[in-house]
Amino acid sequence: MFQPRETTIGPLQLTPLTLTQAPAFFAHIEQQRLCYQDTIPFVSRTHTLEQLTELLTTSLGKQQRGEALFYTLWQGQQMAGYLLVREMDLQAKWAEIGYMLGVEWHGQGIITRACQWLIKQLFDELHMNKVVICCNDDNHGSIAVAKRLGFTHEGTLRQHFVVNGVRRNLCYFGLLRHEWQAKE
What we know:
Elements: E1 7-9, E2 12-16, H1 22-36, H2 41-44, H3 49-64, E3 69-75, E4 78-89, E5 94-101, H4 110-124, E6 130-136, H5 140-148, E7 152-163, E8 166-176, H6 177-183
Parallel strand pairs: 5-6
Antiparallel strand pairs: 1-2, 2-3, 3-4, 4-5, 6-8, 7-8
Helix pairs in contact: 1-3
């Protein structure tokens, strides 16, 4: 089974998620809530450290079963963001990735490089055939990341999920292994 490992992404250290990170993770959410609240569903449902700890426990259980991967991004002792494989289908060979990054680290290409690293792991080590990015149709930053990485917009699901009490449209972007390999 694939084990998450550390790497450096620009000025940040990417480390596997652990429960001991919960207090710093919750502090990060509180500091960045305005940035995340309309684009990241779990942020709009996480208002206490206990709620976050429960979510992280569930997430780490999915990781232990080989259904997901979770990482945090750090600058020293300060959490800067989160990178994840939210879901993997090992039979169909596809995985959905996601990310969030505090505003002070925006515009430095960090998420693009982090996703490049993660996509490479998914294609080369887990032998996935497809990687997916899903985001709100008004999340222009995530849409730009998907396009920059060579993903194809495969469709928009209307009023598909709720974030912060509002029904949102979900853009679905896909990248096939052979498309990625042609870019390398």
